[in-house]
Amino acid sequence: MSDSMNSSARAAAPLAPRVRGTVRIVGAGLLGSSIGHALTARGIDVALDDASPAQLRLAVDYGAGRFAQPDDAPSLIVVAVPPDVTADVIARELSAHPGVVVTDVASVKLQPLHELRARGIDLTHYIGSHPLAGRERGGAISARADLFIGRPWVVCRDGETPADDLALVEGLALDLGAVPLEMSPEEHDRSVALVSHVPQLVASLLAGRFVDAPDGALGLAGQGVRDTTRIAASAPELWVQILGANAEPVVDVLDALAADLSAVATALRAPDAPGARRAVADTIRRGNDGVERLPGKHGQNRRFDSFVVMVDDTPGQLGRLFGELGELGVNVEDLRLEHSPGAQFGLAEISVVPDAVRPATEGLTARGWRIASTND
């Protein structure tokens, strides 16, 4: 084998796991089981524990790990339990496994830290963390090994955190394909209030208006309203805990949002009044500016142009569309599908770099595809 072939083989080989030994995961729900699946797939020994025997058996049956044993000697402990018991479980694990690094994946970082400090617990080997990943449905049955790929994983350290402990938790994130980011607990909780917790409430409030809506109105719903309310399917019992644990920063954002809503409502009550139309336009424009700041592909703030292709609702059509885009040398940056109610076709919105819109649409049209619209 030539040196160039040896180099290619080495480049293609996956990196050895950064986490070694046994990883103990306490909590076999969506996040805990997903971590278990991902680590098991990398050859790591995963010992699962959960207060619910049924949930634990289900996670083991699905291959997220094995049953934890009393004589396990874990190298890392991951606490993946609901927020209302996170501090209790962290304290128990630190006591039961002195010297072992303990991290948790709760979506709120400040409240459990305050609880642990109030109890006087030695937190030298505790590092709070939080993967920004999830699904609308929870439980071991919804777990996926690829849940964390490309997602941010916040790691909350302090000045007393041992460097080796920090490297171990960041190594866990990297082994799962996530992108570790360091934040203080305060910065984390303020950030997730804005980009996660309040959006959940907004989606739920909007979807709640559908409960008493006429069937005819709901029959008009398109992809826009589905995108806006997708996360409204989340579990209420979990979100009651999350929102209660992060109430102060959530209320700050809600108060500001309520003021914005009030201003728009005032303008629309008298749409012909001086300045009313400008107030509405400024609201939409500010939303444009906010969306532009959201990181896109590879974390860039780069925007793409898009075009919409009509796709017959028959087997193989979407695969054929992607295959022919590949033949045209067009890289798909993003995709959104929408089905028209009562119609035997779907609409595939394809996002590409601006220069690719014309060759893509012209090439697809020449191959018989119907282009519904473009925004280039």
UniProtKB/TrEMBL annotation:
<dbReference type="GO" id="GO:0004665">
    <property type="term" value="F:prephenate dehydrogenase (NADP+) activity"/>
</dbReference>
<keyword id="KW-0057">Aromatic amino acid biosynthesis</keyword>
<comment type="pathway">
    <text>Amino-acid biosynthesis.</text>
</comment>
<dbReference type="Pfam" id="PF02153">
    <property type="entry name" value="PDH_N"/>
</dbReference>
<feature type="domain" description="Prephenate/arogenate dehydrogenase">
    <location>
        <begin position="21"/>
        <end position="298"/>
    </location>
</feature>
<keyword id="KW-0028">Amino-acid biosynthesis</keyword>
<dbReference type="GO" id="GO:0006571">
    <property type="term" value="P:tyrosine biosynthetic process"/>
</dbReference>
<dbReference type="InterPro" id="IPR046825">
    <property type="entry name" value="PDH_C"/>
</dbReference>
<dbReference type="Pfam" id="PF20463">
    <property type="entry name" value="PDH_C"/>
</dbReference>
<protein>
    <submittedName>
        <fullName>Prephenate dehydrogenase</fullName>
        <ecNumber>1.3.1.12</ecNumber>
    </submittedName>
</protein>
<comment type="similarity">
    <text>Belongs to the prephenate/arogenate dehydrogenase family.</text>
</comment>
<keyword id="KW-0560">Oxidoreductase</keyword>
<dbReference type="InterPro" id="IPR036291">
    <property type="entry name" value="NAD(P)-bd_dom_sf"/>
</dbReference>
<dbReference type="InterPro" id="IPR008927">
    <property type="entry name" value="6-PGluconate_DH-like_C_sf"/>
</dbReference>
<dbReference type="InterPro" id="IPR046826">
    <property type="entry name" value="PDH_N"/>
</dbReference>
<dbReference type="GO" id="GO:0008977">
    <property type="term" value="F:prephenate dehydrogenase (NAD+) activity"/>
</dbReference>
<dbReference type="InterPro" id="IPR045865">
    <property type="entry name" value="ACT-like_dom_sf"/>
</dbReference>
<dbReference type="InterPro" id="IPR050812">
    <property type="entry name" value="Preph/Arog_dehydrog"/>
</dbReference>
<dbReference type="GO" id="GO:0070403">
    <property type="term" value="F:NAD+ binding"/>
</dbReference>
<dbReference type="InterPro" id="IPR003099">
    <property type="entry name" value="Prephen_DH"/>
</dbReference>
